[in-house]
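Our collaborator T.R. sent over the components below with a one-line note: 'Predict the complex.' Nothing else. No constraints on interfaces, no templates requested, no preferences about which chain binds where. So this is a plain run: every listed entity goes in together, and whatever single assembly comes back becomes the starting point for the next discussion.
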Amino acid sequence: MKIFKFGGASVKDAASVKNITSILQSEGTENTVVVISAMGKITNAFEEVIDAYYNKAKDLSDKLAVIESFHKNIMNDLFDKNDEIYKEIEITLGELSWFLSRNTSQRYNYVYDQIICFGEILSTKIISAYLTKIGVENIWFDVRNYIKTDSNYRDAKVDWNLTQELISEKLDASKLNITQGFIAANDTENTTTLGREGSDYTAGIFAYCLDAENVTIWKDVPGVLNADPRVFSDTTLLEQISYEEAIEMAFYGASVIHPKTLQPLERKEIPLLVRSFINPKETGTKVTKGTRLVPYIPCFIVKKNQILVSISALDFSFMVENNISYIFKKLHDYQLKVNVIQNSAISFSVCIDNKFNNFDAFYKELKTEFKIDVQKGVDLYTVRHFDDKAIQSIQEKGSFLLTQVNKETMQIVLEAK
Ligand code: ADP
Ligand code: ASP
Ligand code: MG
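Returned assembly:
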């Protein structure tokens, strides 16, 4: 049993759909579960629909029309006018309209999941129909009948026992199965999601429950590189990474692998292969038990647009357990993700990711009790297995505001030049 995952970039237009179907034909069309994301940047387009719907904006129907014509254009290149798939997509879009007109809930996260899921439903229906059209037998299934979660919309937690039971009972492991990443359902059949970019994790869940031989995530890069190619011009392919090293890299923000993906694979020692859908003959990166890193070189992870905050008591008293724990509780309440912590006797510094835009409210609440210095728009560089040359290359990018070093990792908050 093999698990494949194709992300948005690999199915962004008709030519890409043809490309992944030829990958499937050459890699084998049996004993496989294929997990697929929404096409291109359609999840972002659905986020715009959700905001327009929630705010009763006038351009809601325009935003829906963009999504509809995006899919129809791809279909026009893949199918004949009278093919069954057109009706099926009409029905799916009808279900979305039905939800939009009937829903009365004001709960943003619930509404978000009920709408965002259509990206994955549309993409998998189109791809499954195209495979059938070119003679590749496959089974399409709705992943919401297999992966069950709690009701924590937008960041749902998997019910592993129930999911295991459903997958073992229902899935025909001998066939080519096509299903959705990212989405799932709770015990009342409402759609939930596993967090943005969560399709890699879906692949990990299937692999775990099916004791798969391996998981391949197909990307637009040759594999895991020692740095994000969007930020560094000179990168090297990592041929082999241990689970521990990959978990560390994903934790610090190497966005090529979703951080939750690796734990289930590590527990059953299922190899994760990261390969290029552009050059599918190449071997890419293997994440397995064993050698930490081949080649053993410094790896760079960058998080842009962070906030550096330095907090001290108004009366210059020491920053110790009681006020630090109070600050942490507030950070948690405002969903501010802390990426680096450093404290001295009278001040406590954190580098924060303001993902949910709650920082200003946090600041307003704390500034009555503490003295707070804020520097927005800073970059956080994490260097694993650093050496002098690696640090020098970061120095060229700007001035260091804070550094932290431990055995394997150096973290630098910097103000870019
Ligand atoms: P998917 O299509 O599966 O959603 P992503 O876009 O999430 O794929 O991940 C692939 C992207 O991750 C690459 O295009 C690359 O820009 C980025 N990336 C960041 N860090 C790395 C890294 N260390 N190695 C390879 N790619 C990286
Ligand atoms: N389509 C979802 C997203 O863009 C899930 C994924 O692609 O992994 O976040
Ligand atoms: Mg993605």
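Summary for T.R.: The chain has a mean pLDDT of 95.
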